[in-house]
């Protein structure tokens, strides 16, 4: 059984198949881009990253303050535990637990899978990525590149539409699906 390819692996496999079949199609013109270098030197990208870093630092300070407050309350409870009644100890322990829950929620809200950090990163960097992609597409079109890759992620950034085999693959899948469906129907009678 075949294991499913990731999207980038499938694209790279298809591109290399086209390049290897270069004698039939002519020579493919390939290029690559180092996205890390672009993001490390393009001023709008640097500005966006600085804004994100400033916001992230503020959130980290707020989170650290929560942890410090929780530790201080815990230390106070430990110091006064001999003097406090069981009810007061239980009340303080509950307060510490509530603070821990609140800190955990804050952490998830800011840095969780769909947290504020990732939302802001997308908001701040998407316009930068859009500008970069426009330039890559222009270079691809103007200079006659067939494919442009990103060296950091191994993703396909640009491809001539004439190399897109998606419709052909779908048509063949549909044709083979219909043929095997007809064969199954025919053998079942």
Account of the 3D structure:
Strands 1-2-3 form a 3-stranded mixed β-sheet, with helices on both faces. The longest helix is centred in the first third of the chain and has 38 residues. Strand 2 and strand 3 form a beta hairpin. 4% of the residues are buried. It folds into 2 domains: 100 residues, no CATH class; 75 residues. Helix 4 packs antiparallel against helix 5 and helix 4 runs antiparallel to helix 6. It starts with 6 loop residues before the first helix and ends with a helix. It is elongated and about 85 Å long. The protein is mostly helical and 189 residues long.
Q: End-to-end span in angstroms?
A: 29 Å
Mean pLDDT: 84
* C-alpha geometry: elongated
What's the story with the biggest beta sheet? 3 strands, mixed
Low-confidence stretches: 1-6
Q: Can you give the helix content as a percent range? A: over 70%
What class do helices, strands and sheet pairing give? Answer: mainly alpha
Total beta strand runs: 3
Strand line-up of the largest beta sheet: 1-2-3
Kindly provide the radius of gyration, computed on alpha-carbon positions and rounded to a whole number of angstroms: 28 Å
Q: What letter string, H or E per element, gives the SSE order?
A: HHEHHHHEEH
- How many H/I helices? 7
Percent range for β-strand residues: 5-15%
Task: Provide the domain count.
Answer: 2
């Amino acid at each position: 059984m075949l294991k499913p390819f990731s999207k980038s692996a499938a694209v790279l496999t298809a591109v290399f198949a086209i390049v290897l079949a270069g004698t039939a199609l002519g020579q493919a013109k390939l290029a690559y881009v180092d996205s890390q270098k672009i993001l490390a030197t393009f001023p709008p990208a640097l500005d966006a990253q600085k804004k994100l870093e400033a916001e992230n630092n503020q959130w980290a300070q707020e989170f650290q303050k929560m942890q410090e407050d929780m530790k201080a309350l815990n230390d106070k409870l430990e110091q006064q535990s001999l003097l406090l009644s069981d009810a007061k100890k239980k009340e303080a322990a509950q307060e510490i637990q509530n603070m821990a829950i609140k800190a955990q929620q804050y952490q998830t809200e800011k840095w969780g899978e769909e947290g504020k950090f990732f939302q802001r990163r997308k908001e701040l960097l998407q316009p930068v990525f859009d500008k970069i992609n426009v330039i890559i597409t222009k270079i691809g079109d103007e200079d006659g590149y067939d494919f442009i890759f990103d060296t950091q992620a191994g993703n396909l950034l640009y491809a001539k539409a004439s190399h897109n085999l998606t419709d052909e693959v779908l048509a063949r899948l549909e044709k083979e699906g219909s043929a095997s469906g007809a064969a199954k129907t025919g053998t079942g009678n």
